[in-house]
Amino acid sequence: MTMIQKPPRSPGSALPADPARPAGPGPHSPGRHESHAAVPLRDVHVRITDWFAESARDLPWREPSCSPWGILVSEVMLQQTPVVRVLPVWRDWLERWPSPAHLAAEPAGAAVRHWGRLGYPRRALRLHAAATAMVAGHHGEVPRTYEGLLSLPGVGTYTAAAVAAFAFGRRETVVDTNIRRVHARLFGGTALPAPALTAAETRRAVELLPDDDALSVRWNAGVMELGAVVCTARSPLCDACPVLDACAWVGAGRPAPDYVPKGQAWAGTDRQVRGAIVAVLRDADTPVPRSVLLEAPVDLGMGAGAVLVPDALSALHRLRAPAEQLDRALAGLLADGLAEEADGGLRLPG
Ligand code: SF4
Fold this sequence. Notes:
Helix 1 packs across helix 11, helix 2 packs antiparallel against helix 3 (about 85-95) and helix 13 runs antiparallel to helix 15. Helix content is about 50%, strand content about 0%. The protein has a 3-stranded antiparallel sheet. The two termini are about 30 Å apart. The chain has 16 helices and 3 strands. The chain is mainly α. Iron/sulfur cluster binds near residues 185, 230, 236 and 243.
């Protein structure tokens, strides 16, 4: 998923000339990859980046006015959560904490509290740690290079490449789930990429990247957007695809995938129980006694409304998680720093 400032539409249907590109195969040459119909890679670049200029969704982190911090926050939030759920939380975060320094001035628990229901709340802690490091070592600014970004706690190779590209216009190889899927179909002729990123895939992504900085940024963003809204995992909208005639997978007759992707189980998992516990802590003004988390309140049969139980606590107990799973989830949250013990109960980190 992701993010880049939406580029202005280039005049006509062609991209601006790319004088930097060598005529023949070079270190980042397009010459090594052509589509099944021998459509030159340069044409594929043009079609996808033109399509992106015309069709990209208007998203606030793509606005020219969005700060590198806003782009970094969006990248982290979007990694495992759909755009529609990210939008309100991202807006809340940027209003509340318009710079790394604003977030770093708050306790880590505030980041978790305002993470809402995006899931995987360790990401909130990672952003808080990154903000703290930017204040301590980068004058409160988002580092401008891949290496600088990668030096931040909790920032991995994908996020570093994406922010360097989309916030600072750098030529970086950005590889996320959507890009991998488009590359696999368009150039590899397979329905899905390998279950985990391979060295060959990374090499292909490097070789496909346009040499020109600006074009490379638009390529990364365009392929990512194509994977998000057209070349989707389950039902690709090939008739709306700007490179349909160049697609190796379509040309091969749309062969079925050779493995079944594992769905992300949710119901009954420790992750679901952890999320429900974090929701209780988020809504609580004071530490929540462990017994309240572990044991459902006794129904005294006094009718609806006789006992006021917070919604989040009711939701936790409706899961009917076994005691050992609750214990395990609590221990995991404490170990991960997503909860802490205080005054005989548990709360978000202070
Ligand atoms: S033609 Fe279909 S499968 Fe091929 S890249 Fe486009 S959307 Fe994906």
